[in-house]
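name: query_chain
kind: protein
chains: 1
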Amino acid sequence: METVTISKKEYNELFDRKLRYEYLRQIIEEDIFAPPPTKKIEEIINAFKQTKHYKKEFLKSLEKGLRRSSYFKK
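structure:
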């Protein structure tokens, strides 16, 4: 094997790209088109609220979108 010398900046860029590629590969291997485990809108909204990562405006918008979705219609 031959030795190749690259700068630390180039190494970090290549390493970052590798990590992103691996992340995407793992996501693609999963069943990304699987339906949600529940059709209960309240359960979904509560799960998002419990993470405390989302603003109230986003949660309201999400709920509105879920209620409009034909998948969640009863």
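note: The mean pLDDT is 89.
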